[in-house]
From TrEMBL:
<comment type="similarity">
    <text>Belongs to the carbohydrate kinase PfkB family.</text>
</comment>
<dbReference type="InterPro" id="IPR002173">
    <property type="entry name" value="Carboh/pur_kinase_PfkB_CS"/>
</dbReference>
<dbReference type="Pfam" id="PF00294">
    <property type="entry name" value="PfkB"/>
</dbReference>
<dbReference type="GO" id="GO:0016301">
    <property type="term" value="F:kinase activity"/>
</dbReference>
<dbReference type="InterPro" id="IPR052700">
    <property type="entry name" value="Carb_kinase_PfkB-like"/>
</dbReference>
<dbReference type="InterPro" id="IPR011611">
    <property type="entry name" value="PfkB_dom"/>
</dbReference>
<dbReference type="InterPro" id="IPR029056">
    <property type="entry name" value="Ribokinase-like"/>
</dbReference>
<keyword id="KW-0418">Kinase</keyword>
<feature type="domain" description="Carbohydrate kinase PfkB">
    <location>
        <begin position="57"/>
        <end position="318"/>
    </location>
</feature>
<protein>
    <submittedName>
        <fullName>Adenosine kinase</fullName>
    </submittedName>
</protein>
<keyword id="KW-0808">Transferase</keyword>
Length: 328
């Protein structure tokens, strides 16, 4: 096995986040369930966007956020995702490269726009995400940089892309490339919506040995395991992967590998402002520490520290110096 020139390469949605605050009444009036994620077509996204208040726009997407975190932590990160030949695609490309993340996926024609996620943040810091995937769901096997995948210690796959056929096939192909090169594959379940209706397919993929490191929150783990008891879920999922990582919100996180089970508390934060990207930055901290050869406890701590920074302000990109804060 050759040495790795990258710590992590991620494959995921190339999305521009549009973030605005709102009250609970706004969500109720538009039939939106607080804290959820739903998919919108282009027309519905245009309608919601016009009703939102003053908003901030920045490149986003779950795995892209994670790669921004890896780069901020001093890691070597790359991202593969599909944008269109439009203004939002240019914004996404510029932002990722400016953050130190390698991003070279060629844009496609503008028949579909670059994806966007309309994020509504209520006063309790909960985020309600409304995603119009656009071009991001057109990612194909042909768009993959195979040498890039072979050069990364970990290939990180985003659950949001598991549903549509084209990117699913691209992710499976990338996993084969990574394993053939002796690398690891990580998968994040992303959101309960990604599992609902696709549980058997996700389980089949995991049972097929595609995933080495599985990230989930408690709700996702329960849904995937088909139980309402977290210990039962952990017992069911633990044998399926080399490393199981479960985040537990304010209660911290745990990781299981072989006979080992490690838990850490959530890192302290003065005020929770916006939970957008908490799981993304947790994965960034964990994977960066993993790439440095740290054990489970330090990987969990790094994830918790990165997540704590991100929930202390609006947006899913670090504002503090993560490299100094986490010190891997």
């Amino acid at each position: 096995m050759t040495s790795c020139s990258l710590d992590v390469v991620a494959i995921g949605d190339a999305i521009v986040d549009v973030i605005a605050t709102c009250d609970d009444a706004f969500l109720v009036a538009r039939g939106l369930r607080k804290g959820s994620m739903q998919l919108l077509d282009t027309d519905a996204a245009d309608d919601l966007y016009s009703a939102m208040g003053v908003a901030r726009e920045m490149s986003g997407g779950s795995a892209a956020n994670s790669m921004a975190g890896v780069a901020a932590l001093g890691g070597r990160a790359a991202f593969i995702g599909q944008v269109a030949s439009d203004q939002l695609g240019e914004i996404f490309t510029h932002d990722m490269r400016a953050l130190g993340v390698r991003f070279d996926t060629p844009p496609i024609g503008d028949d579909l726009p670059t994806g966007r996620c309309l994020i509504l943040v209520t006063p309790d810091a909960q985020r309600t995400m409304n995603t119009s995937p656009g071009a991001s769901h057109e990612l194909t096997v042909a768009a993959l940089d195979e040498d890039l995948i072979r050069s990364a210690a970990v290939t990180f796959l985003e659950g949001y892309l598991w549903g549509p056929e084209k990117p699913r096939e691209a992710m499976l192909h990338a996993a084969r490339l990574a394993h053939d090169a002796g690398r690891k594959v990580a998968f994040t379940l992303s959101e309960s919506l990604c599992i609902a209706g696709r549980r058997e397919g996700v389980l089949g993929m995991i049972d097929g040995g595609v995933v080495d490191i599985l990230f989930a929150n408690e709700d996702e783990a329960l849904l995937l395991a088909g139980t309402d008891d977290i210990e039962t879920a952990l017992a069911a999922l633990r044998p399926k992967v080399e490393t199981l990582v479960v985040t537990c919100g304010a209660d911290g996180a745990l990781a299981m590998r072989g006979p080992d089970r490690v838990t850490v508390s959530a890192a302290p934060v003065d005020k929770v402002v916006d939970t957008t990207g908490a799981g993304d930055l947790f994965a960034a901290g964990f994977l960066t520490a993993h790439s440095r050869g740290h054990g489970l406890e330090r990987c969990l701590e790094a994830g918790a520290q990165a997540a704590a920074e991100i929930i202390s302000h609006f947006g899913a990109r670090p504002e503090a110096d993560l490299k100094q804060l986490v010190r891997l």
